Amino acid sequence: MSARTHSALVLVGQREPFEIHQRPTITPEGSDILIDSKFTASTPLDLHRADGGLLIEPPQVLGAVTVGVVEEIGPNVTLFKPGDRVFGWAHEGNVQAAHQERITAPDWKFARIPNGFTMEEVATIPENFITVFNTMATDLGLPTPWPKPADYVPPRADEPILIWGAASSVGQQAIQVLKHYGYRHLIATASPSHHGYLKGLGAEEVFDYRDEKVVEAILNAAARVRGAQQPAIPMVIDCIGSQEGSLKAIARVADRGTTVAIMLPVILKHASNDQVPEYSMDVTTAARWKEGVEPRGVRTHFVYRNEFFKEKLATEIMPAFLSEGIVLPQRYRLVEGETMLERGTNALNALRDGISREKLVWRTSQQ
Ligand SMILES: NC(=O)c1ccc[n+]([C@@H]2O[C@H](COP(=O)([O-])OP(=O)(O)OC[C@H]3O[C@@H](n4cnc5c(N)ncnc54)[C@H](OP(=O)(O)O)[C@@H]3O)[C@@H](O)[C@H]2O)c1
User: Fold this and answer.
1) Which domain holds residue 74?
2) Which end of the chain is less enclosed by CB atoms within 10 A, N or C?
3) How close is the Cα of 238 to the center of ligand 1, in Å?
4) Residue 20 in contact with residue 6, Cβ under 8 Å?
5) Which residue ranges does the record assign to the Enoyl reductase (ER) domain (predicted)?
6) Which pLDDT tens digit goes with each residue over 50-71?
7) Which of 258, 237, 314 is nearest to 67 (CA)?
8) Using CA atoms, how far apart are residues 248 and 301, in angstroms rounded to an integer?
9) How many other CB atoms sit within 10 Å of the CB of residue 58?
10) What is the share, in percent, of the chain residues with pLDDT greater than 70?
11) Ligand 1 atom 30: the closest Cα is on which residue?
12) d(CA 150, CA 152)
């Protein structure tokens, strides 16, 4: 039998145009499933890798969000059968990466698409849903009980949490998940046009991150709930990780006892059409932290070191949160193009131009 192949969008070099290559289609073994991919999303990580070469060696297939139909299953798969419509987050190597027509990956990275949701809608969920749980558990030390007891009140329910960059995909999901677990004082930053939406999701107060008085506004909001208790903001989720655009201000908000969970990489210089980006993986030198502040770099790629998350997070918790309306699909732009090459390229260009509270979703079939 001749080896099967499929089309894949391949990064052949830093800031080089993508190419379409034929890649081997891998027959699933063990608990792997082979997915006929229908949709993916392009996310900032794709830009960090394509333009900044972050933690990769081309040639490399990018992307981590796959939505599609199970085509074949390995002998140990119990979660799915051929024909199931699934969505999930899988990124390792060139076999699991999402920007191709078929991927082979472990079944526990996926969930069945709940009734009532389109494939495009669910493409907006997995990457940052998993990021938020990882951030809470690994970096902030917050419990994420599942199932959540009916009368559950988290241990730090009344401590303000700052979500910087709440209009981002990470930020929107952070607000919804934290609200669900009972955190009462979610203080956020975003552009003014998103304030109403983010309050609807559960933010108590939202401030414009471009306002030169934003730090004072955040500290005043914290004082309204906490009086003179220090630190004013005990926990921060920096959904942006930009040295100039978020960390500089957060370093003024954070005080002894504050934990700051920062989405890596730290962006020293943003990618654009004419600028090569610069990144750092070192959060300790990314800002002038006051004595006693704990900056932490979020690394969701290691989330499945947590055995409970490996068993439940993608397969069970993610679809339940979606079908119960605890998290909403994000607003998305369906990226157009005649071919996979055009769609993937257009999505990357859109990331370079900058996006505002929307996910870039595109069809993965070659034509
Ligand atoms: N290390 C990890 O485990 C991990 C996991 C997931 C994501 N990440 C990283 O986290 C970052 C965010 O990812 P994402 O997918 O959530 O991004 P995204 O949805 O593409 O973020 C876009 C949003 O960023 C906001 N923004 C841009 N600059 C800002 C600033 N200086 N202050 C506040 N908000 C700002 C914009 O807000 P407005 O529209 O309000 O202007 C925009 O809506 C990326 O760098 C990604 O690679 C890391």
Assistant:
1) 5-125+329-363
2) N
3) 9
4) no
5) 13-328
6) 999 999 999 999 999 999 999 9
7) 314
8) 26
9) 15
10) 99
11) 245
12) 6
Asked if the structure places residue 97 within a domain, the reply is yes
Q: What is the number of the ligand 1 atom nearest to the C-alpha of 45?
A: 47
Residue 345 lies in a domain: yes
Q: What is the pLDDT of residue 261?
A: 99
Rounded to the nearest angstrom, the distance between the alpha carbon of 122 and the centre of ligand 1 is: 19
Copy the structure tokens of residue 291.
């004595």
Residue 312 covered by a domain: no
What CATH number has the domain bearing residue 296?
Answer: 3.40.50.720
Number of domain units in the chain: 2
Phi, psi of 273 (to 5 degrees): -60, -35
Tokens 């900058």: give the residue.
354
Nearest CA to ligand 1 atom 26: 165
Q: Containing H/E element for 22? A: strand 19-24
Which ligand 1 atom minimizes the distance to the CA of 191? 40
Question: How far lies 297's CA from each of 140, 170, 247, in Å?
Answer: 11, 14, 12
- DSSP class of 158: T
- Are 265 and 206 in the same domain? yes
297 and 231 fall within a common domain: yes
Per-residue pLDDT, averaged over 292-304, amounts to: 97
The CA distance from 175 to 162, in Å, is 10
> What is the C-alpha to C-alpha distance for residues 94 and 122, in angstroms, rounded to an integer?
23
